[in-house]
Amino acid sequence: MGAGTEPAEAQCDSLQGRIYLDYNATTPLAPEVAQAVWDAMCQAWGNPSSSHPAGSKAKELIGSARESLAKMLGGRPEDIVFTSGGTEANNMVIHTACRHFHNSQRGMGDSRGIPHIVTSSVEHDSIRLPLEQLGREGLAEVTFVPVSPRSGQAEVDDVLAAIQPNTCLVSLMLANNETGVIMPVAELSQRICALNRRRTAEALPRILVHTDAAQMIGKGRVDVQELGVDYLTIVGHKFHGPRIGALYIRSPGTTTPLHPMLFGGGQERSFRPGTENTPMIAGLGQAAELVNKNWEAYEAHMRDVRDYLEATLEASFGKQRICFNSHFKGSKRLCNTCNFSILGSGLQGRRVLAHCKVLLASVGAACHSEKGDRPSPVLLSCGIPPEVAQNALRLSVGRGTTRADVDRAVQDLVQAVQELERDQAP
Ligand SMILES: Cc1ncc(COP(=O)(O)O)c(C=O)c1O
Fold it and tell me: What mean pLDDT comes out for the span 205-223?
């Protein structure tokens, strides 16, 4: 690709006519993002820490990407720290909370032992697994609050009931990647803020509040002031950006603690050192700009197409055969996610997808795709019966998905089910 070539034009149609409905797993780069990455690679290759013009150009691009991210979240540029992705951002919050707990115990006669962290039973593995590891090593106590089968949400009262004197972090995702259910993060932050005032008086450690917003950005409003959180995780490849991420921290190092996991050359104010990945950061900034300009239009479009998908599924299979696994009365859900089961024996989600010729989708989180036919633990914890959960399919539509795509995808599903039933017939 020569300088000035449109990277978007060079993108081949790798889908070869298939219909991709797996936008919660990942999204392709927006053409504007690919262009920004390419431009930065060609024109801002200098080391951002160098004081000559090649360095300054790269530094400038990083600064403007930081501004775009801050604007997207209603925060300040100095509250953004770039990371390799969501996994790192989530691990950094957990690491920080443990350090914060131990710092808060310094000089206290009666130590409260190890930190306690509260989270939900449906978090992404990049929260669940580091917490389980800390628990196994005896370095932290963890409470996984089950989601309510009535709402699919971790209820605020249940989360608050799990809090102990040694609690130092509550982490609750903003929207679940499998069901799309939106969690009551703003209410939780408010209640914890009030609780923290009482805890200060009792010399108990402040409870930090984190939300993993990986699935919500670009699909709905995300405003850190409304959410009232101390930390928020950003994952570029979920909103047509590159495979890097960022962490929002409310005034890192002053209002809110932030402890680095890496030590090195001082970049990102030493919170996350290492020579900055300028092209990817520039791309992330461009992806944020697209969200800033268009998120309402994206949301309205995806909601329309998703609702059409659900209506088409019911019309094609019959209402009695389709069970929607994320329709919880009173709970809001992501505009793009449809988690459903086609009822009947031998129609496990994985088998149905394997018989599809056009549709590309998943049965749940992409990082669990190796785990065989076991029903999703997320659906089970939402109270979906195992025989329904094992037939689950997660279809997640994107900015460019059309009603015609939906028609083709559902037709494909109908044929796949007919084939499976024919094969099973005695
Ligand atoms: C809710 C949620 N959090 C965090 C992540 C982790 O992102 P990454 O694998 O890019 O680090 C994902 C990605 O699947 C996710 O869906």
Answer: 98
Q: Give residues with Cβ within 8 angstroms of 278, minimum separation 6.
A: 40, 44, 45, 48, 58, 61, 62
Alpha carbons 364 and 179: distance in angstroms, whole number: 9
Q: What is the pLDDT of residue 424?
A: 85
**Cα–Cα distance for residue pair 287/310, rounded to 1 Å:** 28
Domains of the chain: residue spans and CATH: 31-290 (3.40.640.10), 295-423 (3.90.1150.10)
Q: Is 362 in the pocket of ligand 1 (CB under 6 A)?
A: no
Distance CA 99, CA 91 (A): 12
| Token pair recorded at residue 363 | 């049965």
Question: 203: left (phi > 0), else alpha (psi -120 to 50), else beta?
Answer: left
Nearest residue to 162 via CA among 197, 194, 116, 200: 116
- pLDDT, tens only, 270-284: 999 999 999 999 999
Predicted pLDDT at 131: 98
Q: For residues 268 and 86, what is the distance between their CA atoms, to the nearest angstrom?
A: 17
Per-residue model confidence (pLDDT) at position 4: 41
> What was the pLDDT predicted at 425?
78
To which residue do tokens 């679940």 refer?
176
DSSP-derived letter for residue 175 is B
Cα gap 67→80, rounded to integer Å: 9
Residue nearest to atom 5 of ligand 1 (CA): 86
Spell out where 293-361 has E strands: 322-324, 337-342, 359-360
pLDDT on residue 13: 61
How far is residue 423's CA from residue 426's CA, in Å, rounded to a whole number? 8
- Distance, C-alpha 192 to centroid of its chain: 22
CA–centroid distance, 200 to ligand 1, in Å, is 33
- CB of 394 closer than 6 angstroms to any ligand 1 atom: no
Nearest partner of 355 among 374, 371, 339, 342, judged by Cα: 342
Q: Please give the full DSSP string across 345-383, using - where no structure is assigned.
A: TT--HHHHHHT-SSEE-BSS-GGGTTSTTPPPHHHHHTT
Take residue 141 and report the two structure tokens written for it. Answer: 């106590």
pTM above 0.90, yes or no: yes
Give me the helices (H) in 106-184, please: 125-136, 156-161
Q: Report the atom number in ligand 1 closest to the C-alpha of 236.
A: 10
Q: How far apart are alpha carbons 170 and 208 in whole angstroms?
A: 6
